[in-house]
Amino acid sequence: MGRIQFINEYPADEVFTLDKRIRLLKERKLAQTQEKIEMEGGLDEDDYGRVVPPDDFHFDFIPNNENGSYYGYEGWRTNYCKLLDEHPLYCDPLDAFVGRGFFFMTRQKGAIWNPDMPYDDLKDAFDEYNIVCGIGSDGHFTPDLQMGFDLGWGGILEKLKKYQQINNGPEHALFYESEIMVVEHIIAFLHRMAGEIARLAEEEQNPYLKKNLQEMAACNEKLAEGRPETLRECIQWMCWFSFFSRLYNRGPSGGQLDEMLRPFYEHDIAAGILDDETAKFYIACLFLNDTRYYQLAGPDENGKDMASHISYLILEAADWINIACNLTVRVHDNMNEDFFHRSVYYLFKDKNAWPRFSGDNSLVDGFMRLGYDQKLARRRLAGGCHWMSIPGMEYTLNDLVKINAAKVFEVAYFEMMKEADQTPPSTEVLWNKFEKHLRRAVDTTAHGILFHLRHQDKNEPELICNLLSHGPVEKGADVTRSAAYFNMCIDGAGIATVADSFAACEQRIEKEDRITWEALTRQLELDWNDIDGEYIRQMMLHSARYCGGNTLADAWAVRVNKLFSDLVRGEVEIIRAEAPDYPAIQFIPGWFSWSNTLEFGSHVRATPNGRHNGEAINHGANPTFGYRKDGAVTAMANSIAAIQPFYGNCAPVQLELDPQLANTPEGVDKMVSMIRTILETGNTLLNINIIDKHKVLEAHKDPSKFPDLVVRVTGFTAYFSMLSPEFRQLVVDRILAVNGDDPSLPDVRPSSGC
Questions:
Q1: Alpha-carbon distance values, 311 to 243, 295, 565, 673 (Å)
Q2: Which of 34, 91, 448, 723 has its CA 20 to 30 A from that of 432?
Q3: What are the φ/ψ torsions at residue 359 (nearest 5 degrees)?
Q4: Within a 10 A sphere around the Cβ of 18, how many other Cβ atoms?
Q5: Separation of alpha carbons 597 and 618, rounded Å
Q6: Considering the entire predicted model, what is its pTM?
Q7: Per-residue pLDDT tens for 563-606?
């Protein structure tokens, strides 16, 4: 078995403090990141805590389909258990925990969807509108880790066997056989790993590291079947669940970290077996293990803020390790003000784009609009780049279903111009075409989601996350059929591109009469590449822009958002009528593009807002970069607040700020006030990059010179050096580019022949 084990790496007499261990672990992390870059190239995604596998490790999966891939319970359980039997141990004696993995099965298996279940009737619309349909995607939902703490792997196995006896019909047999097989292999894996760590402890010559390995071995032997009782055991259990779920299909988010850890921390402090420095070290090692999304503070079910002493320790631990991580601080009416200030302080101190801030008032109110009560709404967490879910209860497909609204606009525009002889073009005619095509795109997407729900268990059942969800074990069915709530997210992408294009047409063609529809169409077909092309492009580019401050484009954005939200919400009754097996299904609108920004743009020809053929569309709910000279935060935040769908999903605000803005206590106070104001206007999620523009430019030229530079790409943080050149450029443009309005642009009709 291949191994990555750092035994006898240091002299027997070397002394290790916690500070020293943190420094060495961080250095190792940066070196491993560089290894991944060299092996895999640019990675426009979360870091996930993965390491490069040993050279002698190769996994060959067993196909169960003639296409050479594997599907369903039999295919996934067979290959997952085989992988557990063969997976090497990554063990660093400096670390408090083990549980680092090498890859995801989803990236190794080949074709993602079972070809025996075709959906050809949906593909034409998916292709026409460049829709990311979500069919076959891993769920992106949040498990209930507390269930794992309460049961342990042995308890989970007992629970499965109990309900296997209760639900003993043939329709449940495959579910229980598969889940029991997986858990039995997990337990065997943990016993094997505990034995391996004990063997390494015997080999290690440094007494300090030997003791750590001995404690690690004892911890893991207990957790193979038992429940965690101490903070170290709790975090080790979390690391292993992260490993098992990531290995399977990338897995889910983390949950409310401070509340999950608090009982274990308080138990250990009361027992006299833990101090704050050691607790921080354990938490820092958790962040090193994985980049899962964790929440801090926020309201409990009764509205009381959950910030506690360990909430502060978590911030201090993240500061200590100072790597890419994903922490969200929940802001609400009863916020602990001191904790709020500390969060902002660390945001500017480390400049690593954490924490971000969620607007819990808006999110809770939005979710309640769906008919849920306040206590349930307060349990929802920002579980990923922008999405929300109730731990263990809600299946979402969040961040995995996106409609390229810019492509929908393109289809509508050119259909209008094709019919111009029969119906003279206008923005209202264009709007009617846009509505027609957006309606088809949304309806097709909703039916794609229903198809996914009905067939995913025969494609890729959630064998790991089922174990910590309320419903699957009790009902004997995959979470895609048994979740307590099905709140299915449908995101739109490109709202700024669309709003700016509508506004540019209305302003320059209809209000100012500077260009005709026919002349504009010619430029779009030529990608502005004729004698007057660049001149006309600049005129269109400098028309009213979304996020410019109550502009014509802002009004169009509100109109686009209302249409999109109404269409998405309208699918609820349509699908419920067609699918009595999903009587409570909900569809929730949002605006988010993730890293699809580049891919979506590549499918859209030149647009009336001055965008070139194939250029990226706008990022998420943000404006097209360079929307105004001063980049006014207030105008942008107000415009994004106005297009929040308000059903418990997010349209995030992405800000790039100068580090000098909060380099004093007074500066921190001002930033706290700004963040609160942005969220109180109705915004739901705030991502902030604190970046020195000169450093970014230098890093873009040679990323290797800045291996520890972290940026918030979308909802996730990543090492800048890990991003592809194209995505680095996108981040650079977003941070640095400014274009200002110029109302003095001349009329271009004479030279254009319009």
A1: 24, 10, 36, 21
A2: 448
A3: -95, 85
A4: 14
A5: 7
A6: 0.94
A7: 999 999 999 999 999 999 999 999 999 999 887 898 999 999 99
